[in-house]
């Protein structure tokens, strides 16, 4: 009881002290930020006065206003114009929409004007390069009206970590000065009309910290940039639709931390290098429609692979049986190639495998366990005949008359006819005749 009374008295004393402290603060009409800091006043006093976030530097505010003035807006009804409406002279630019500053220095560290405003038009104003503390720059989907990356100026942004200029209507080549951005972790330049040869643009010296490189959907020329294979920290690489030619270098196996690789829609020659098996962190491999030839390499070491697409190439030979047993594989697209021979390893297929397309090849047999009929993956194939326990998607009804082999035993045909098992409901053009209802 004594302990409870003592505790109550102490609490009352503290309550009165706090209330008195509040009244004293109020009587001196301290600003709101002081009240917010009062709870930590005793702890702060030993370290001195608490820091107040610095205001934006006047020269950087002026640079931002110059950048704003470089854009034209035929209409005010767009998100981009709304963002810039908060950019007003005489106000703290650290409070402007799309701006973030360093709390101590007041320097601009982030600029995010990403939006979609087809009516806006502008360029990369030189004033932008006066923001030398910038770490994050995002102008995604802003129409830069066919502007080119400047020959000089961009290299002044030596602190830049993330550069996002996707879908900005950029044209021209990437200038050599771009390689001066040594601090970059992410480069996003996709969906522009950038051109020129990029074979010598990337190296470990220029971009030692780079983790994400997306150059997709541009008009480059030349071969696969060998310097990219020196970027040991790279996790994401997208060179799809970049008009690259030549072979995929064996040194791509040096990118041991790579998680996603997109090389689709290019004009490569030769095959997939066997060194891909070194990319043990890879989850996505997409080389669709890239003029590849040769055989599909063994990928058994890629235990994290979830999606493989090598469709619409000139790959040949047998499909490696082990590809179906990759433990994380969900999607496998091998259609429109010249693969041949039987496929008999579906009985060992990974339980994660859901979507498989083998159509438009020269395959002779595809054998599945009967259990796949109850809850099968989506299987697509064009083969000349069906054997025991075969499941096929998109089988044209008019071809059924040619496929008499194996009928009557435990053949399972997927076609546009019924009766349809439960798993086919809601799936376009995927139906099955179960063995029990075949005759």
Automatic annotation (TrEMBL):
- TM ranges: none
Extract the InterPro entries matched here: Leu-rich_rpt, LRR_dom_sf, LRR_N_plant-typ, LRR_R13L4/SHOC2-like, PGIP
Where found in the cell? Answer: Cell envelope; Membrane
Q: Where is the Leucine-rich repeat-containing N-terminal plant-type domain?
A: 58-101
- According to its record, how does it sit in the membrane? Single-pass membrane protein
Q: Does the keyword Lipid metabolism apply?
A: no
Coiled-coil residue windows: none
**Family statement drawn from the similarity comment of this UniProt entry:** Belongs to the polygalacturonase-inhibiting protein family.
Q: What is this protein called?
A: Leucine-rich repeat-containing N-terminal plant-type domain-containing protein
The organism is Sorghum bicolor
């Amino acid at each position: 009881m004594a302990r409870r009374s003592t505790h109550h008295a102490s609490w009352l004393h503290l309550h009165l002290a706090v209330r008195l402290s509040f009244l004293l603060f109020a009587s001196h009409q301290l600003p709101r930020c002081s009240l917010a800091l009062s709870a930590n006043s005793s702890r702060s006093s030993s370290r001195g006065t608490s820091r107040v976030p610095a205001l934006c530097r006047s020269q950087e505010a002026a640079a931002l206003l110059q950048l704003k003035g470089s854009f034209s807006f035929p209409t005010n009804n767009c998100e981009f114009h709304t963002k810039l409406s908060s950019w007003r002279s005489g106000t703290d630019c650290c409070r402007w929409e799309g701006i973030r500053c360093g709390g101590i220095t007041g320097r601009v560290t982030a600029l995010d004007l990403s939006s979609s405003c087809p009516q806006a038009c502008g360029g990369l104003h030189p004033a932008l390069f006066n923001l030398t503390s910038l770490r994050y720059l995002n102008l995604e989907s802003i129409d830069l009206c066919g502007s080119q990356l400047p020959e000089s100026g961009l290299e002044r942004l030596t602190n830049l970590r993330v550069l996002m200029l996707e879908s900005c209507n950029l044209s021209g080549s990437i200038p050599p000065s771009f390689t001066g951005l040594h601090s970059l972790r992410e480069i996003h330049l996709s969906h522009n009309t950038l051109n020129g040869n990029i074979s010598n643009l990337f190296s470990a010296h220029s971009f030692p910290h780079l983790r994400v490189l997306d150059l997709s959907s541009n008009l480059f020329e030349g071969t696969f940039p060998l310097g990219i294979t020196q970027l040991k920290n790279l996790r994401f690489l997208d060179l799809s639709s970049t008009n690259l030619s030549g072979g995929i270098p064996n040194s791509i196996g040096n990118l041991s931390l790579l998680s996603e690789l997109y090389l689709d829609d290019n004009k490569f020659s030769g095959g997939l290098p066997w060194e891909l098996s070194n990319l043990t962190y890879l989850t996505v491999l997409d080389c669709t429609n890239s003029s590849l030839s040769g055989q599909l390499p063994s990928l058994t070491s890629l235990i994290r692979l979830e999606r493989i697409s090598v469709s619409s190439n000139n790959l040949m030979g047998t499909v490696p049986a082990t590809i179906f047993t990759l433990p994380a594989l969900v999607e496998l697209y091998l259609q429109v190639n010249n693969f041949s021979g039987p496929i008999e390893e579906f009985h060992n297929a990974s339980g994660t495998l859901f979507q498989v397309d083998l159509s438009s090849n020269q395959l002779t047999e595809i054998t599945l366990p009967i259990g796949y009929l109850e809850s099968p993956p989506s299987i697509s194939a064009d083969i000349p005949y069906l054997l025991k326990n075969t499941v096929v998607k998109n089988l044209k009804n008019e071809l059924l008359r040619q496929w008499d082999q194996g009928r009557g035993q435990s053949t399972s045909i997927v076609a546009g006819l019924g009766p349809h098992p439960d798993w086919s409901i809601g799936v376009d053009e995927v139906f099955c005749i179960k063995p029990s209802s075949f005759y």
